[in-house]
């Protein structure tokens, strides 16, 4: 089965944000849907630039809070943007196989994979359960 078919079947919607989004905006975005573990950072054309996960958000606030007052930690976090904390975007394309998605996920220790079209625009994502249930289809 191709990733594009699995993506259409399961989760065609994905949370995105711009590289200039504030940390506060990112926290609000993940708080809207408790199931959101990652935000896909995209440019103005929807092309994938990077990923910000809940872990990165916890680190940016928590690393400052360990040695400081929480108000100082939050002020530090507010001064940063998605661009400052995003990590490399590892993704699969709609025309890749689900088997390739499994390989990429395992190699990079990822639970979810952004799915992009041939132009690099985010069109959805596959989570680990969707990958596993579509392997032999």
TrEMBL record:
Gene3D superfamilies: CBS-domain. InterPro entries: CBS_dom, CBS_dom_sf, Diverse_CBS-Domain. Signal peptide: none annotated. It holds the Pfam family CBS. SMART domains: CBS. Keywords: CBS domain. This is CBS domain-containing protein. It comes from Tectimicrobiota bacterium. The lineage of its organism: Bacteria, Pseudomonadati, Nitrospinota/Tectimicrobiota group, Candidatus Tectimicrobiota.
């Amino acid at each position: 089965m191709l990733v594009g078919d699995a993506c259409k079947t399961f989760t065609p919607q994905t949370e995105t944000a711009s590289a200039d989004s504030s940390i506060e905006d990112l926290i609000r975005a993940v708080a809207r849907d408790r199931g959101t573990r990652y935000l896909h950072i995209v440019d103005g054309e929807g092309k994938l630039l990077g990923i910000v996960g809940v872990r990165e958000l916890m680190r940016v606030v928590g690393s400052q809070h360990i040695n400081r007052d929480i108000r100082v930690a939050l002020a530090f976090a507010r001064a940063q943007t998605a661009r400052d904390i995003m990590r490399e975007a590892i993704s699969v394309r709609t025309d890749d196989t689900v088997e390739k998605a499994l390989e990429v996920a395992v190699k990079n220790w990822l639970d979810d994979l952004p799915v992009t079209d041939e132009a690099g625009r985010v069109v959805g994502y596959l989570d680990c359960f969707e990958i596993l249930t579509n392997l032999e289809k």
